Amino acid sequence: MLRAMIVDDEAPARSELRFLLEQTGKIGSINEASSVRSAIEMLMENRVDVVFLDISMPGASGLQLAEALHRLKNPPAVVFVTAYSDHAVEAFDVDAVDYLMKPVEEARLDQAIGKVLARVKPVSENKSSIERIPVEKGGRKVLIPVDQIRYIMAKDDYSCIFTEDDRYLSTTSLAQFESKLGDFGFFRVHRRYIVNLACVEDVETAASGAIQLGITSVEDRIPVSRRRVVPLKKALNL
Questions:
Q1: Which residues lie below 8 Å from residue 123, measured CB to CB, with a gap of 6+?
Q2: CATH number of 132-236
Q3: Span 2-120 CATH architecture
């Protein structure tokens, strides 16, 4: 499962590309940036395997970001996603994996992901450094083993981590948890929820058509957003 970043100043374009990427079942986590500057800030905190990059944006251009990434020792793959065809030569000068035209076609996107997978090995965090997650409990820092976490829920400015018999607060965002825990079998099923796939006991379709998950030793059922149903079923081999 690849870790991806979408860099595009237009929110509808980011949303559409995110939807298409999620449908492939080959993307483990997706970060979004609306500018080159915000993309650089995110990349300093979380490594990714591939950047889906628009070219024409206010301020620094996508080509400038690609040039900077190309100079790194272990750069992420770059796939340009643009409405203009006249930058293709420049794009491949910075070793871009592919050049997609908007609106993006599913078949072309899948082809591009195949090229990315052929070039890069999905990055893995040093597992020894994140086998336990630091959280707040009663004014103390507590270290929770990752395999004890059932699910994580976004709540106001915090993330609420649920284990079999307790819950904890963390200032780490859900997006950061999604990036850090992807290699440990955690999956973003909803904008507010990440679940430990190893703890999913059942998948239920409610009368309304909504999908909910039953989690081991947890009374509450976890909602699954419609756009995450297909990649979730692929992740669970359903």
A1: 3, 47, 48, 49
A2: 2.40.50.1020
A3: 3-Layer(aba) Sandwich (3.40)
